[in-house]
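Technical annex, item 7. During the second reporting period the consortium partners agreed on a shared format for inverse folding records so that results from different sites could be compared directly. Each record opens with the tokenized structure and is followed by the designed sequence. A conforming record, contributed by the partner at site C, is shown below for reference.
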């Protein structure tokens, strides 16, 4: 949800910033802009992708050693040149980039208009930079103090960077609720600021994650951090654990395809050191201090959004089946606003790839305020959710850049399966035989995913047949029902075809009315306890002339006779099947989208990291 990047050092700032913006483009891509300071403070901004901004800069003098850039996902005001960041203050001597939402911007704006301020854009962010200028004038203070005083009056979420023509050697940054990482290079002679670490890694692995309510003042050789009460804070410098090649496409046409194909490795990485099949051993180092809360939980509440919510639904089946603890899965956005009941002995698990989703963070804060112990399942190390939870386990899937989540889902389901196994064993709710069987199957999942990926060409051909469909239905039962939801979500996100995921048996209460000869119906019909029931559901679809694409277990001889197309995936324990059944659905969505000419990695209107509610 908007990406911000800034540079201060001896090198040319503009190319560093543009490269950083490209890395952050997954966070929003409806406009982009830069501010560069070299004698004067110049702002260039343009509607569209970072490429449009680059085209604009071709004939400009962009020489500067300090600057900042922004790639936007619109909240206040439509995507256009004027609403793009950076924004200037009234006197055009201060510029600001912002990721987040200033909730009380309307009141502040009115106050400033009454004082004679004129606004160019419709954004909340422009109000903030005008407000900073106003506070500075009123208080005759320096810029950092003006930023601090302004922020004490701001309601909402932000990560901001501020530059001033009057302080040409400094950057001011602050955060509350939106991420901001500061990279320190060349012994503090060079600084890079960004919404995540991806624009930073090729310059340094020394970083400081700015905390909420902190303000940083950065000059060459100097990084000062203070809190909102103007108390100096000691920067906590951490070592980044991220490889440059993990954020590049490495020969794949799209990040999404690369990430789908990475799944054998990413799932293996999620289990590394946690599952030792030869010793029949499962452990999660990050969940020890509060493990008893999990083991004795009377109920587990899972909060998440989007694909992470689907992983939560899969986990509901797995945890209930194995650990016999009731699980409820909630959309974080609903949970946070409905005064939920959290009793003693109930715990919350928050799932988030980015670790920055605003609704999930707010749900965590709410649950915390009600005294709950919260476990986090996050992919991004050091992210806000990882830090806001009491304990947790990272998914270690590596950076996910394609907006449509793929490897994060399988990694989340893997970690949640490990968690379920661990709890079940300790609670004694599964037999040793079943435990060992699941450990063996889980250990084999990366190889089974690798086999499933061999279906790529077949699925590409299938995509060519159905690429012009206007609707798709996805059906599944048991823990393949959330996979049906996920398959439908993938398709609509990137191909813009309307798709619905439904429990196969529930189809007859509604979606069956949609079925005709033009309706592709993807049915997950793997060999499990609901197999016979799903076979009946397939017959119901076929009786109405729907086109059935069935995902079946290798060796199935019955379903191929009934349906239009079969996709055979390897067998595994039925509890773990979502880890395999989702793979062909990811590939189907991908190929349909490519064949329709859609921008797979940056679908319209979406953003990877939704840091606004
Ligand atoms: C956005 C992304 C989805 C993601 C969801 C939740 O909508 O486009 O891919 O599933 O946010 O994000 P999180 O980072 O919390 O898992």
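Designed sequence (site C submission):
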């Amino acid at each position: 949800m908007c990406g911000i990047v800034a540079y201060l050092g001896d090198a040319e700032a503009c190319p560093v910033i543009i490269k950083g913006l490209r890395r952050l483009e997954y966070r929003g891509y409806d406009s982009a802009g830069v501010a560069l300071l070299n004698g004067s403070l110049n702002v260039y901004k343009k509607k569209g992708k970072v490429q449009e901004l680059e085209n604009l800069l071709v004939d400009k003098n962009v020489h500067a050693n300090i600057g900042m850039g922004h790639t936007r996902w619109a909240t206040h005001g439509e995507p256009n040149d004027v609403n793009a960041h950076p924004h200037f203050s009234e006197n055009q001597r201060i510029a600001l980039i912002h990721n987040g939402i200033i909730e009380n911007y309307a009141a502040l704006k009115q106050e400033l208009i009454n004082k004679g301020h004129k606004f160019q854009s419709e954004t909340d962010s422009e109000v903030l930079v005008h407000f900073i200028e106003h506070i500075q004038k009123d208080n005759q203070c320096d810029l950092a103090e003006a930023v601090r005083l302004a922020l004490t009056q701001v309601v909402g979420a932000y990560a901001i960077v501020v530059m001033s023509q009057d302080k040409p050697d400094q950057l001011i940054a602050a955060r509350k609720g939106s991420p901001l990482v500061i990279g320190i290079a060349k012994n503090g002679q060079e600084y890079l600021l960004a919404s995540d670490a991806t624009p930073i890694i090729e310059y340094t692995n020394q970083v400081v994650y700015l905390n909420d309510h902190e303000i940083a003042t950065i000059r060459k050789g100097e990084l000062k951090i203070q809190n909102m009460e103007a108390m100096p804070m000691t920067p906590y410098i951490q070592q980044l654990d991220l490889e440059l090649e993990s954020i590049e496409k490495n020969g794949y046409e799209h990040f999404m395809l690369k990430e789908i194909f990475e799944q054998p490795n990413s799932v293996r990485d999620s289990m590394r050191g946690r599952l030792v099949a030869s010793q029949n051993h499962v452990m999660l180092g990050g969940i020890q201090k509060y493990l008893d809360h999990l083991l004795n939980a009377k109920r587990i509440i899972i909060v998440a959004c989007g694909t992470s919510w689907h992983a939560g639904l899969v986990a509901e089946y797995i945890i209930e089946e194995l650990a016999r603890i009731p699980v409820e899965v909630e959309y974080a956005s609903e949970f946070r606003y409905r005064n939920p009941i959290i009793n003693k002995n109930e715990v919350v698990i928050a799932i988030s790839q980015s670790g920055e989703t605003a609704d999930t963070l707010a749900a965590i804060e709410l649950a915390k305020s009600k005294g709950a112990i919260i476990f986090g399942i996050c992919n991004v190390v050091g992210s806000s959710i990882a830090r806001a939870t009491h304990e947790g386990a990272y998914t270690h899937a590596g950076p996910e850049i394609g907006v449509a989540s793929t490897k994060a889902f399988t990694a989340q389901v893997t970690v949640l399966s490990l968690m379920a196994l661990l709890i079940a064993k300790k609670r004694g709710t599964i037999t040793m035989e079943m435990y060992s069987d699941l450990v063996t199957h889980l250990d084999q999942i990366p190889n089974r995913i690798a086999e499933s990926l061999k279906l790529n060409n077949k699925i590409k051909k299938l995509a060519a047949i159905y690429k012009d469909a206007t609707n798709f239905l996805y059906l599944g039962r048991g823990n393949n029902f959330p996979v049906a939801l996920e398959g439908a979500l993938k398709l609509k996100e990137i191909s813009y075809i309307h798709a619905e995921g439904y429990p196969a048996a529930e189809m007859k209460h509604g979606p069956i009315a949609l079925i005709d000869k033009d309706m592709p119906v993807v049915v997950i019909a793997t060999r499990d306890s609901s197999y016979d029931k799903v076979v009946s559901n397939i017959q119901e679809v076929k009786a109405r002339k729907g086109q059935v694409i069935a995902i079946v277990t290798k060796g199935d001889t019955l379903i191929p006779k009934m349906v239009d197309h079969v996709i055979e995936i390897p067998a595994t324990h039925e509890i773990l099947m979502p880890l395999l059944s989702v793979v062909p659905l990811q590939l189907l969505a991908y190929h349909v989208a490519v064949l329709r000419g859609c921008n797979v990695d940056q679908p319209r209107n979406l953003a990877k990291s939704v840091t606004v509610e």
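The first helix runs from residue 13 to 24. The pocket of 6-O-phosphono-alpha-D-glucopyranose is lined by residues 305-308, 352-354, 357, 360, 403, 405, 606, 608-610 (CB under 6 Å). All partners now use this format for quarterly exchanges.
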